[in-house]
Amino acid sequence: MPGVLDFSNVTKDYGIPWSRRRIRALEGFTLSLERGEIFGFLGRNGAGKTTAIHLALGFMRPTSGAGHLLGKPFGDAASRARIGFLAENVALYHRPARKLLRYYGGLNGMRPQRLQLRSSEVLRQVELELEANRNVARFSRGMQQRIGLAQALINDPELLILDEPTSALDPLARVTMRELLLEANRAGKTVFLSSHLLSEIEMICHRVAILDKGRLVKLGRTEELLISRDRYEVVARGIPTNSFELSAYSLPQVRGLPLDANLAGDGRVQFTIPAAAQRDALQRIWSLGGEVLSVNPVRRTLEEVFVELTNKGSVL
Ligand SMILES: Nc1ncnc2c1ncn2[C@@H]1O[C@H](COP(=O)(O)OP(=O)(O)OP(=O)(O)O)[C@@H](O)[C@H]1O
Ligand SMILES: [Mg+2]
Q1: What is the predicted pLDDT for the residue at 300?
Q2: Residues 6 or more apart whose Cβ sits within 8 Å of residue 179
Q3: Ranges of each domain in the chain
């Protein structure tokens, strides 16, 4: 049953002019978006993100495999009208901002009256209402990205596909963009966004996929990806500090335990341990007369997860 956006075993090769060699940009790529989610699409430069997005939009065809956009095979014009798309390199017609929005809305078959209302609404959303009559050719890069987003929102789409929507935005505009995406999502829109700004992805995406050299290397709920099963954080109190440090050095099975121990003023001690050393560490604390206050899996940043998965062989 095709959903909002599905890729099924998609491979895409690009030909190289004057050569028989081909570049494999995507390989056996399978992904299924859930309606109503914000999905983060990650990968290093050249990993294949834009390629996957262009295939979904029907700009080109897969070498093999297939996919569906809003229930229709890639390339279907009617489903294109129900989505909003912001390209990674925004290329806009050189027109005043408001006129440009009317032009794009018209392409989507929107009626003039509705279009007029909607143009004002989205211009306000992207904080460009004061620039409505200026030609976008003279907009700054960040302003162009914002009018690009307005263009993507004009038809009140069910699905927003955004290829690096915040790359040119200043910090405040990024916050606005984030709130806008959350608001669109609360209104029921599904959001598919590629980005290199991992802290932002971490903040707003329900699920993420990581591509590496055209292959999907990770897919999961953001929360779950960030929890490490290898290391635990222990908080304890009542351990005589000296004995703790000395004894830990003499105990090979809990080696490393005191090295990152963080002693708080109130007698609490906090440290991380490998999962395998958990039992020994807790017993050690108890035998020293201490009390274990909490044991939790260590939370990693998305950047740490990303580097771990994609740092094999540099592309530079
Ligand atoms: N039109 C094209 N012709 C030939 N090769 C291409 C074409 N478009 C992309 N490629 C190649 O396909 C691979 C994937 O590129 P793609 O643009 O999909 O990566 P990306 O993940 O979007 O990267 P970035 O983060 O830099 O935007 C790269 O090796 C790129 O050189
Ligand atoms: Mg790209």
Answers
A1: 87
A2: none
A3: 5-225, 228-302
DSSP run (H or E) holding 235: strand 227-237
SS3 content of the chain, % helix, strand, coil (to 5): 35, 30, 35
Q: pLDDT of 102-122, one tens digit each?
A: 998 888 888 889 999 999 999
Residue type, 195: S
User: What is the model's pLDDT at position 256?
Assistant: 39
Contact 120/82 with Cβ under 8 angstroms? Answer: no
Q: How far is CA 175 from CA 132, 157, 255, in A?
A: 21, 21, 43
CATH topology of domain 5-225: Rossmann fold (3.40.50)
How many Cα atoms sit within 13 Å of 290 on the Cβ side?
Answer: 24
Residue 310 CB–ligand 1 contact under 6 Å: no
Does residue 42 register a pLDDT over 60?
A: yes
Q: Is the CB of 88 under 6 A from ligand 1?
A: yes
* Ligand in nearest proximity to the CA of 47: 1
Burial 281-298 (b: 16+ CB within 10 A, else e): bbebbeeeebeeeeeeeb
Question: What fold characterizes domain 228-302?
Answer: Alpha-Beta Plaits (3.30.70)
Residue with CA at minimum distance from ligand 1 atom 29: 46
Question: Tens of pLDDT along 45-93?
Answer: 999 999 999 999 999 999 999 999 999 999 998 888 899 999 988 778 8
pLDDT tens sequence across 262-276 = 555 567 877 788 888
- Is the Cβ atom of 50 under 6 angstroms away from ligand 1? yes
- Whole-model pTM: value is 0.85
> What is the C-alpha to C-alpha distance for residues 78 and 91, in angstroms, rounded to an integer?
23
CA distances, 230 to each of 219, 234, 273, 296 (Å) = 19, 13, 9, 11
Using the mean position of ligand 1's atoms as its centre, give its distance from the Cα of residue 186 in Å.
32
